[in-house]
Amino acid sequence: MYSGASNLVTTTDNAFFLIIGISVIFFVGILATIIWFIIRYNKSKHPVAEQIHGSNTLEIAWTIIPLILVLVMFFYGWSGYSPVRNAPKDAMRIEATARMWSWSFEYPNGIKTDTLYIPVDKPVVLDLISVDVIHSLYIPAFRIKEDMVPGRTNRMWFIGQKPGNYELFCAEYCGLSHSYMFTEVKVLEQDKYDAWLAQRSDTAATAAATADPAVAGRRLIESNGCLACHSSDGTKLVGPSFKGIYDHKQAVVTNGQTREITVNDEYIIRSIYEPDADVVEGFRKGQMVTYKNQLSEDDIKLIIEYLKTIK
Amino acid sequence: MENNHLPNYLEYRGKRTGLLGWLTTTDHKRIGLLYFYSMMTFFLTGAVLGILMRLELIAPGRQLVDAQTYNAFFTLHGLAMIFLFVIPGVGAVFGNFMLPIMLGAKDVAFPKVNLLSWYLYVLGAIIVLTSQFMGDGPPDTGWTFYAPYSLKTQTNVVAAVFGAFVLGFSSILTGLNFITTMHRMRAPGMGWKRMPMFAWTLYATGWIQLLATPIVGITLLMLAAERLLGIGFFDPAIGGDPILFQHLFWTYSHPAVYIMILPAMGVISEIIPTFSRKPLFGYTALIVSSMAIAFVGYFVWGHHMFTSGMSEGARWVFSFLSFIVAIPSAIKVFNWTATLYKGAINLQTPFWWAMAFIFVFMIGGFSGLVVGSLATDIHVHDTYFVVAHFHYIVFGGTGFAFFAAMHYWWPKIYGRMYNTKIANIGLLIFFTGFNMLYFPMFILGLMGMPRRYYDYLPQFQDGNVISTIGSWIMISGLIIIITNLIRAKKQTGKIVDNPWNGPTLEWSIQSPPTLENFEELPVVTHGPYEFK
Q1: Are residues A99 and A62 part of one domain?
Q2: Which residue of A has its CA nearest to B148?
Q3: Is residue B3's pLDDT more than 50?
Q4: Does B373 touch chain A (CB under 8 A)?
Q5: What is the pLDDT of residues A215-256, one digit of tens each?
């Protein structure tokens, strides 16, 4: 409480304290009254009940007073919340994309990461995009959450006020690995952020421009969140592991029929664009969405180069 | 003594006897019990799933089952508890049994439709349960069926949705039946202002069942049509809007919360006067607050969607109205408390249940203010805070009232009296376990643990361990309570006819009641809670 991790913490926590405080006072008050009545008016001490039917004065009092109190609570809740909707114009924009079950963040200069890096004390707007089902981006330390709804772009904004690492969860149930859809927000001092950005841009540029397509392929796999479901060390996750997959003979299910294929370029492209066309035996259909709009055939060529390296 | 009694409804032999006599009965009391037995089966199924989920969550990582199975567990737990237990709940069991008697009537207005309601309920329940074993695996969408996940998952969603659709008709027909019964079947002299509060809450509930349930029926049909025929209602990939699904779903499912809780409030409003030997304080205010809850309850559904990306205007309107709907509930608690004032309080088991109800219902209600307020809801939305909140309301409210009603009316229904000492011990254990199970979830939610999580980070473990231990304590209490009720001893005379000196009409007849309740229709000359 009151950690000051983001600009929303203080107003939100004020609303918490106000509401919980009034609630506790009422709860204890009513409870004490009930206990007192039970003791005082127990039939052994008070054998004849007075036949009271009610009191209009009391009814009015306990309608009006709670009404005023809940309006105060409403107001605090509303005013603590309203800054959430008004991002400053000069805020830095980052595109946050959710898919089953990974995150990716794209920065203004085109870099993509699976962890959210932001500079301290700078307003940041996240454009929230989902490519499959509804997810919800939740940073508990920042007191912020907004759903990521396919077909529309929601927004959230905040200022990270203390350097550090904070948890980022998916809060809207999205299927099998919902609870593993987890990453971090890293709030960095401005100079460290700039250094990180420069280094990342460098690596990305070198990887793209220079020789090693396998490094670029690995980078694409990381930034598109493939590793959430496909391991690179042979572990069986939601989907088959990448390890030793290339050139491997594989039984797949096509339209309900099992057949054997060899994992080659053509098969990998089809698997990424039409994941349900040939499903590896032993895995479920419908777990993966198409990456048609995220990965070009050139990108996939780089990924294949990387796959060839993990035997 | 026994010889003076006519055969009661349990002994009565009509055209058909035995099991067939029960399955073709149109007696509101037998139908109430048919609901009771089927509902307890589903409640215990849901409880077992709940225990298994708690066991899985005792530590991070896999304990018992894999993630897919866990997701199916919480889906079926939700479906069984919501659609098969708490929505029909108090109304279908105790409403069916007691409402006609409380009004001085021989049955509900449409006894055959009443039996049809039960058959629809059983049919719906069977469809929901078989959906678990057919097709491509049990549904894994959660009881909310949110699109587009529910459109994309390969599991057997259509069958579960169809089951819920059928259950809706059962609910609509019961609502219609009760409303008509209250309009047409009251005994001579039983004016509206002489109806017991339980009847009034069923009246308010009936209108919600009648008007809100069709919306969820249509929504579920749309979902099935989209899955089977590819009509783009909700999936943006084929031109739909997933937010539309949420609006339609909650337009019913929030009022449904009041279908669950209003009859529960009615039960509490019966028990407190009886054991205080005093009229219900603010009878009229309680009627008005019930109707206000039923009415305003239609306009607050958006508070389930504060993080969905709804417009700002909608967010504050829904937040505002959610705070307004808290008032009638608060009024009820104040009036129950005031009923105790200057009473002659008789500390019996049903009274303790009513007090336990007020305790947990207040916690549920106050935590509702936290989720009704915008700033705080953004933080705790879809976390364990919400799980704690609705278990305090739905289980703590409706569930506790259901058990209160069992202990209050058990002698009337069966002509048997349970051991009150064991009943009190059972309640104490159950109550302790309940709070230990659900209270830590408030803290987990404030710490940021999202709901519907199969696995969690290490910092959430302490709360989860306490909660799981609480589930064991609660289930022990439950076992004591249920065995004690089953072992209740057969009695005759006042000890079962009117053990609590209850003032309402059901206590003026023998226990168990005869087939037609009253040999001669009673003439009512005063309000429901007149004590001499």
Answers
A1: no
A2: A133
A3: no
A4: yes
A5: 888 878 877 778 878 888 887 777 888 888 888 888 888 887
Q: Render pLDDT for B48-69 as a digit per residue (tens, 0 to 9).
A: 999 999 999 999 989 999 999 9
**A1: in domain:** no
Contact B153 A147 (CB under 8 A): no
ipTM of the complex: 0.91
Write the residue in A43, A78, A151 that is nearest to B241 by C-beta: A151
**A301 and A277, same structural domain?**
yes
Q: How many CB atoms are closer than 10 A to CB B19?
A: 8
**Phi and psi of B407, rounded to 5°?**
-75, -30
pLDDT at residue A205, rounded to an integer: 60
Nearest CA of chain A to the CA of B131: how many Å?
A: 18
Give the residue carrying structure tokens 């959660």: B142
Asked if the Cβ–Cβ distance from B146 to A30 is below 8 Å, we say: no
Q: Best of B68, B374, B452 to disrupt the A interface by mutation (most A CBs within 10 Å)?
A: B374
Residue A2 domain flag: no
Tell me, what amino acid is at B45?
T
List pLDDT tens digits, range B118-142: 999 999 999 999 988 887 788 899 9
pLDDT digits (tens, 9 = 90+) for B420-455: 999 999 999 999 999 999 999 999 999 999 999 999
Sort B488 into a burial class: Cβ within 10 Å, 0-12 / 13-18 / 19+.
middle
| Residue A113, beta-bridge partner list | A105
Number of domains, chain A: 3
Average pLDDT, integer, range A284-305: 81
Residue A166 sits in a domain of what CATH number? 2.60.40.420
A72 and A16 housed in the same domain: yes
Integer-rounded Cα Rg, in Å, for chain A is 28
- CA pair distance B485, A233, nearest whole angstrom: 58
For residue B331, give the nearest of A38, A50, A63 by CB distance: A63
Interface A-B: count of C-beta contacts within 8 A: 261
Q: Is the pLDDT of residue B2 over 60?
A: no
Chain A contact set for B448 (CB, 8 A): 138, 140-141, 167, 169
Domain that holds residue A174: 92-206
Structure tokens at A207: 């990887």
Last residue of a domain, one of A51, A85, A119: A85
Q: Are B138 and B76 in contact (CB under 8 A)?
A: yes
Minimal C-alpha gap between B20 and chain A (Å): 44
Give the residue from B278, B307, B363 with the most A CB atoms within 10 Å of its CB, the best one to mutate.
B307
- Indicate the range of A193-202, B214-223, B362-371, B503-512 predicted with least confidence: A193-202
Domains of chain B, earliest start first:
24-508 (1.20.210.10)
Separation between Cα atoms, residue B531 and residue A50, nearest integer Å: 10
Same domain, A50 and A122: no
Residue B373: which residues within 8 A CB-CB, separation 6 or more? A15, A19, A73, A74, A76, A77, A78, B319, B323
| B369 touches A: beta carbon within 8 Å | yes
Query: Comparing A274 with B381, which gets the higher pLDDT?
Result: B381
Q: Is residue A3 part of a domain?
A: no
Choosing from A153, A172, A206, the residue where a domain stops is: A206
Whole-model pTM? 0.90
Share of chain B above pLDDT 70, in %: 99
Q: Residue B76 pLDDT > 50, yes or no?
A: yes
Residue A65 Cα distances to A33, B327, B334, angstroms:
18, 10, 12
Residues 226-255 of B with CB under 8 A from A: 235-237, 240-243
Give the pLDDT score at A241. 87
CB-CB neighbors (< 8 A) of B315 in chain A: 81
Q: Are strands A135-139 and A257-262 parallel, antiparallel or unpaired?
A: unpaired
User: A166 to chain B nearest CA, in Å?
Assistant: 11
Question: A227 and A195 in one domain?
Answer: no
